[in-house]
Amino acid sequence: MKTHHGDLFAVFNKKISSFALYDGKDSDNFLPYQVSPKFQRRDLDAKFITGLRKWVVNFQIDGGSDDFSLLREIKEGERVNVVCKIVHVCEVDKDKWMAFVWDGTDTRPACIPTRLEDEKDHPLPLHLEPLPLPRDVLCTLPQLGTVLRVIFSQGIEKHCLHLLKTGYWVKFVNVLFEVEGGLWRGVLTPFTKLRYTPNEDSLVLERQRIYDLRLSSRSLLARLPFFSFPCTSRITEVGHKDVPCVTLMDVLTYSEVTAKFMCVVRVVAVLPWQPEDFYFCGTYRIRLTLEDPTARIYAYLYAEDGEKFFGGYPTADVLTRKRNVLLGMTAADDNGKETEGAARNPPWIHCCLKSYYLTKSDPWGSRHYRIFGTKLVV
């Protein structure tokens, strides 16, 4: 045993050492999931493993609540300790895995680094996994609070993947947090430590209390994004002010194909991006990328809904100004030209959404979303 930078390590000597790794959960399975070439099983191994499994149940890491952050407190580029529940784990590519974790809070909105014209050939991702999750999996995830995607540094999956079991709370120590395409992700590195945490742990109970408090609120504000407080921007007007807001995960997992919703979102991208192309032959045809702390979706502005949204058919200069405010752009001059390389921070807006389908034979597979009953008032 040796120390390195204040931490204690078991050092493996290829010439004389041997090891075996066992599942830490209490069970009757005494077969190791990984062994060194020189390892030889002994009759006493089962007794030692049983003792260790009983000991680990009540073992607590010596660390106070101040050592662990909520997901709403993370910042880009920092290495942070968090306590999260594993809500899903899947293989997203050959030998590449991703964990989905949650603590009931909302991650802060990230600035959007891309230029508007990039949306045509390099659109912002709707999610970090290569393919969208199947609907049956999506419906098992929480609808309130960010479900954070967590990836593995190359080569460490085999060492910690078996520890990420769906439904368990885990303490993650020294996780790197990054923003990719405006979406948050965590990275497990060789310096990350993981530990199962019982439901009775004070940190788990605190996160559950925060989440339960949000759920129990009966006001119209119950499911608003945390960072939209104290109030959303007033650049939109909607025709259904008394309807409770829902999250985009609520929208995605709603039990019926067609429905109407009220949401508080940010518009992070638009296609086409040039205002003079927003409508053709008097008909608006625009795709907006909407996001909140729970999801991203495409929503379309079409025909009369686009006319209401923009207040008719204003000039290109007026449309440019409206677009710039909606997308959180920083203008370099009075003509609305975007500052080269400037990150965008779109405002939170209220909007009405409705879902519909394109193909009767495949209603869920052809489900789309449109903005309606919403007016931009800038």
Automatic annotation (TrEMBL):
PANTHER family to which the protein is assigned, alphabetical: PROTECTION OF TELOMERES 1 (PTHR14513), PROTECTION OF TELOMERES PROTEIN 1 (PTHR14513:SF0)
InterPro entries named in the record: NA-bd_OB-fold, POT1, POT1A/B-like_OB
GO BP term, example: telomere capping
Name of protein: Protection of telomeres protein 1b isoform X2
GO cellular component, as recorded: nuclear telomere cap complex
Domain POT1A/B-like OB fold: 232-362
Organism: Ziziphus jujuba
GO molecular function: G-rich strand telomeric DNA binding; telomerase inhibitor activity
Cited Pfam families: OB_POT1A
Domain of life assignment: Eukaryota
